[in-house]
């Protein structure tokens, strides 16, 4: 079972790194949004640093979404999904391996890049640190929630938009607690730990519900 | 563990298939035992591939049962190889990487990837991305997957399509070798496969207009 998990994880990481893979796409999209917003808002540093965490979180959420529709669709199109069903390992392990690989190539780079992009929105050093921590803990929730939508829309030709409509409402709690934890780190009445722990809990819940839900969706499809 | 499991027996009883509320075929029954091969013939659209899809767990039968005896706790899906029209290969990975993924992922490993590629005469293409291979070569890589993991039952959907005559002979030898080691084969085909003493079943499309007496279809005239 571990062997199957590792094999699939390594395969997906290789695919992301090869030509046409989605490895850096999310990161570039993230960069684009964060760069655009200061142009739109104007050079008001106080305003930017106040809404900076929110901008970074929304950008991270959208960057997670754009590649998600291909999570299972690529395997569905070339018949690999049939191969994935035939493993000794249950489909939940398959989903888990694919989601972990996806998070490693999108969520993790976003968290690492956050301090550099934080410069563009005039974040203070503490806020940058808080951004890295909240993105590290919060983006897995986004990926797992998105995986359910990706599994449901895997057999649809243009499932990208439907996927976004399906999963965005479920991502709102993660967004709220992610941003409030990042804001709590730079001041305010709420201690940092309170929203941060809820964010961690959301990720853990999403990991279970998302894995089981996506596997169930793949089983019922076709 | 060898490919053949003693006492394995696949019995299919009175199988029927519906696609989009239309009955494709019904009353398909057969028994497959070790060393046996089943050749499924029929016109285009008769439901040959749908029959294999049902056996491979991709479609649900409308009626009928599929029973695998003697496999212990392993479900049917974990006892079979399926090579369909979509070759389940990742174009960005090399032939060897595709096969070593299948070997690690499917479990019960058999031949090493380069040995399997040699067996289908593609040793020289091991390091090439599958995207650069021709249709016939891709098909041979997909067929090489049969050799990298032990599975007693092979489901092949028109395995000879796109293959040249030399490769067809290689395929025949591989199939006979699998049968000699106690394996089972079910293949759909239009061209003869020249397998020794193969059972043959012909799938006929259910003629709906001519069979008004069938259950539930008699009321159309009323």
TrEMBL record, chain A:
Keyword Signal applies: no
Primary localization: membrane
Cellular localization per UniProt: Cell inner membrane
Transmembrane segments: 21-42, 54-72, 93-121, 127-149, 161-186, 192-218
GO biological process entries: cytochrome c biosynthetic process; cytochrome complex assembly
GO terms for cellular component: plasma membrane
Membrane topology: Multi-pass membrane protein
Keywords, ordered alphabetically: Cell inner membrane, Cell membrane, Cytochrome c-type biogenesis, Membrane, Transmembrane, Transmembrane helix, Transport
Domain of life: Bacteria
InterPro entries: Cyt_c_biogenesis_CcmB, Cyt_c_CcmB_bac
Classification via Pfam families: CcmB
A GO molecular function held by the record: heme transmembrane transporter activity
UniProt keyword Cell membrane, yes or no: yes
Family: Belongs to the CcmB/CycW/HelB family.
UniProt function note: Required for the export of heme to the periplasm for the biogenesis of c-type cytochromes.
Protein name as it appears in the record: Heme exporter protein B
Gene transcribed to yield this protein: ccmB
